[in-house]
């Protein structure tokens, strides 16, 4: 069964960095495009970034471009999101999600909460 | 301000049919598939409709999707109390080179 398990969230100060991870199992991780989607407390979903199956191509939302970096380690079946220069508005639950070709985000993790506060 | 526009809320009584609209533009819904996600309280989003009107296995036939031009809609028939939650539309946006979501619609079953 497909499982996506995020980790690494926590409380950090503005301007600092954090890396969150997503451990994948139950499918051939290296064959799928992967995404990060976030949800601020009480707010809607916001797409953050995607990475191609081989890691060669990445895309970012304008709100995080230049500050966040998505990466993957296919040997470890793990997806990462490096969050730099964090701001209060980055406070959110960060979900990882698998994209099935032309079929949307078919599996989601449970999310990890990142709180940016002084 | 979301790129895709949804009504903030809707409601219905058990057994009723409700629809949720999603309005976009030629760079997103008008030229790409629309997807719908259901998020029940305290849980992760779940894929409900893909490629405008297809249902993943396990999603009841009470849920259906449609699209016309730059707008789409999600219909839920035979409304049940367990359908109460938030519903989001999404599409790839060619101009932004990224995925966009609607602001979400909170469904209340009265």
What is the rounded Rg of chain A? 13 Å
> Rough shape of chain A?
globular
Number of helical segments of chain B?
0
Please compute the radius of gyration of chain B using only Cα atoms. 13 Å
| H-E string of chain A | EEEEEEEEEEE
| Helix share, percent of chain A | under 10%
Approximate helicity band of chain B: under 10%
Strand content of chain B: over 45%
Largest sheet of chain A: 7 strands, mixed
Spell out the blueprint of helices and strands.
The complex is a heterodimer of chains A (118) and B (110).
Chain A: E1 3-7, E2 10-12, E3 18-25, E4 33-39, E5 45-51, E6 58-60, E7 68-73, E8 78-83, E9 92-99, E10 105-108, E11 112-116
Parallel strand pairs in A: 2-11
Antiparallel strand pairs in A: 1-3, 3-8, 4-5, 4-9, 5-6, 7-8, 9-10, 9-11
Chain B: E1 9-12, E2 18-23, E3 34-39, E4 46-49, E5 63-68, E6 71-76, E7 85-93, E8 98-101, E9 105-109
Parallel strand pairs in B: 1-9
Antiparallel strand pairs in B: 2-6, 3-4, 3-7, 5-6, 7-8, 7-9
Summarize the structure.
The complex is a heterodimer of chains A (118) and B (110). Chain A is an all-beta fold.
What this model shows, in words?
The complex is a heterodimer of chains A (about 120) and B (about 110). Chain A has about 120 residues and is an all-beta fold. Chain A is built from no helices and 11 strands. Chain A has strands at about 5, 10, 20-25, 35-40, 45-50, 60, 70-75, 80-85, 90-100, 105-110, 110-115. In chain A, strands 2, 4, 5, 6, 9, 10 and 11 form a 7-stranded mixed sheet that branches. Chain B is mainly β and about 110 residues long. Chain B has strands spanning about 10, 20-25, 35-40, 45-50, 65-70, 70-75, 85-95, 100, 105-110. In chain B, the strands form 2 sheets. In chain B, strands 1, 3, 4, 7, 8 and 9 form a 6-stranded mixed sheet that branches. In chain B, strands 2-6-5 form a 3-stranded antiparallel sheet, with no helix packed on it. The chains are: A mainly beta (about 120), B mainly beta (about 110). The interface of A and B includes residues 44, 46, 62, 103 and 108 of A.
């Amino acid at each position: 069964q497909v499982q996506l398990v995020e980790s690494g969230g926590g409380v950090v100060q503005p301007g600092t960095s954090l890396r969150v991870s997503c451990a994948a199992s139950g499918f051939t991780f290296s064959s799928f495009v992967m995404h990060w989607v976030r949800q601020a407390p009480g707010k809607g979903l916001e797409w953050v970034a995607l990475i191609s199956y081989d890691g060669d191509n990445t895309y970012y939302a304008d709100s995080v471009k230049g500050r966040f970096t998505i990466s993957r380690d296919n040997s470890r079946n793990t997806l990462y999101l490096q969050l730099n220069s964090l701001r209060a508005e980055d406070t959110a639950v960060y979900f990882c999600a698998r994209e099935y070709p032309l079929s949307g985000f078919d599996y989601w993790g449970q999310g990890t909460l990142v709180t940016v506060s002084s | 301000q979301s790129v895709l526009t949804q009504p903030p809320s809707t409601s219905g009584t058990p057994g009723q049919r409700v629809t949720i609209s999603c309005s976009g533009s030629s760079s997103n819904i008008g030229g790409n598939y629309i997807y719908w996600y259901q998020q029940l309280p305290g849980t992760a989003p779940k894929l409900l409709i893909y490629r405008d009107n297809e249902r993943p296995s396990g999603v009841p036939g009470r849920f259906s999707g449609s699209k016309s031009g730059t707008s789409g809609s999600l219909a839920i028939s035979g409304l049940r109390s367990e359908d109460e939650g938030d519903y989001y539309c999404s599409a790839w946006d060619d101009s932004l080179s990224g995925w966009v979501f609607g602001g979400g619609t909170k469904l209340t079953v009265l």
